[in-house]
Amino acid sequence: MNKFTFFVALFLSMGIWGCEDKEENNKTVVPIECDCNSEKIGEISGEGTITFFKPEKEEQKFFHYYGNQYWITIKEKKSTFHYIICNQKFLKGKFDTLEKTKKSIKIKFSGTERKLCKNSPRIVGSTDAVHVYYYAIIELTSIEEL
After folding, report:
1. Residue 24 maps to a domain
2. CB atoms < 10 A from the CB of 119, how many?
């Protein structure tokens, strides 16, 4: 087994933690319960896209739990990084149009990267051994449209 496959298998076996389940209102933004209080990983900045994420299948608890939130996505060659924005009020309505569309907007951002909430549902579904998907929470300190 090569190192890459080993680390992907290790990552998947560890699972991902998060907040307790709660009902979500599909019509308004409902911030995740642990908000920006989860453990700090470090500072992050870069360019990516912002999307208002709405899960399509409710049987995928992870995506349903973290759905109806603004997500920042960064795509690299063999990795996709998803950051769920915990301080939605920081956006000050700049990206409200994304709630009604499935579009994304290119952005430049910075903030504090945080772990997913303790006890969150695990990611369900197939994971590609060639492509790594990463999920974390971000507390934004700056964001601008490109």
Report:
1. no
2. 11
Owning domain of residue 104: 44-145
Angle in degrees, CA 131, 136, 138, rounded to 5: 130
Name the pTM for this structure.
0.72
Q: What is the CATH number of the domain that holds 100?
A: 2.40.50
Of 62, 64, 63, 84, the residue nearest 73 (C-alpha): 84
CA distance 45 to 105: 16
**What are 91-125's pLDDT values in tens digits?**
999 999 998 888 999 999 999 999 888 777 776 55
Phi, psi of 88 (to 5 degrees): -60, -30
Q: Which of 18-22, 72-76, 95-99 has the lowest mean pLDDT?
A: 18-22
Please count the structural domains in the chain. 1
Structure tokens at 44: 């992050």
Is 23 within the bounds of a domain? no
Residue 111 inside a domain? The answer is: yes
- Contact (Cβ atoms closer than 8 angstroms) between residue 54 and residue 111: no
DSSP 8-class letter at 121: P
Q: Find out whether 34 and 117 touch, Cβ atoms under 8 Å.
A: yes
Radius of gyration of the chain (CA): 15
In angstroms, rounded to a whole number, what is the distance separating the alpha carbons of residues 104 and 49? 6
